[in-house]
Specification:
Elements (H helix, E strand, L loop, with lengths): L4 E10 L2 E11 L3 E6 L6 H9 L6 E6 L4 H7 L2 E4 L13 H6 L3 H4 L7 H13 L15 H15 L3 E5 L7 H16 L3 E5 L6 H4 L2 E6 L1 E6 L1 H4 L2 H8 L5 H5 L1
Parallel strand pairs: 3-7, 3-8, 5-6, 6-7
Antiparallel strand pairs: 1-2, 1-4, 8-9
Helix pairs in contact: 5-6, 6-7
């Protein structure tokens, strides 16, 4: 099976700091991959490298058989960052934010067509934000705001979705909804990569998991990746911690 995303031998340095070290990774359509690791393990750097926002010092990244820049220009890759800077006083509505996901399809005039408005309506409905569509984005709760940026990615109709800590600072309802949406998107054929700290929810969320500590330490079924000996390598945990909890 041809991978939607292929990462080969990618090394990234931030000045004198080694962020990624010879990383290999394949992501496939129709699957949710959970990317886990402690703070500073390189998760965000890897996601931004796949999107083309960071250029690796060595190695290659292929997205849909070509460079990340081409995937971005086609609108086939969507990125939901860990945090969005939102000016609470700026009168940008939820609908306006979601509509920005359609900009790559509007041409130079940025004039919304019926297809663009329909895609926004569908995205708002799927994230249960229809009733809040005209509310200023700055007035939303953290969970609602995160859902709005997921809705933007859905409106973009991207086939590859990369999400950096989409559950950070969200309520349980939003977390459950985002998890359900990501599972649905994968079932529809999307390739989904999610950075997350929530190890307990990983088996429900993901088809496979990748454990990162600048290098890929383990990849495969979430239950196998979450074995205590693997977590000990990445997090410095005592491999017996689960036994002691029983």
């Amino acid at each position: 099976m041809t991978a939607s995303v292929e990462v080969r031998g990618v090394t990234v340095n931030h000045g004198d700091v080694l962020a990624l070290d010879d990383v290999d990774l394949d992501l496939h359509a129709g699957r949710v991959c959970g990317l886990i690791g402690m703070n500073g393990s390189g998760k965000s750097t890897l996601v931004r490298t796949i999107t083309g926002l960071i250029r690796p010092d060595s190695g290659t990244v292929s997205v849909d058989g070509g460079p990340p820049a081409r995937a971005r220009s086609r609108g086939s890759i969507a990125y939901v960052p860990q945090s969005e800077d939102v000016d609470r006083d700026f009168p940008l509505s939820v609908r306006d934010v979601v509509l920005t996901g359609r900009y790559g399809r509007m041409g130079a005039t940025r004039r919304a067509r019926p297809a663009d408005r329909a895609a926004v309506d569908v995205a708002l409905e799927r994230t249960e934000l229809t009733d809040l569509a005209n509310r200023p984005i700055g007035q939303l709760s953290g969970g609602q705001r995160k859902r709005a940026f997921v809705a933007r990615a859905i409106a973009q109709q991207a086939t590859i979705m990369l999400l950096d800590e989409p559950f950070a600072g969200v309520d349980k309802r939003s977390e459950a909804m985002i998890t359900r949406l990501l599972r649905q998107l994968a079932a529809d054929g999307a390739t989904v990569l999610v950075c997350t700290h929530d190890l307990h929810a990983l088996p429900t969320l993901a088809d496979e998991a990748v454990l990162l500590m600048r290098r890929v330490l383990a990849q495969g079924d979430p239950a196998e990746v979450l074995r205590p000996e693997n977590l000990a390598l990445a997090f410095g945990l005592d491999p017996m911690w689960r036994e002691e909890e029983r």
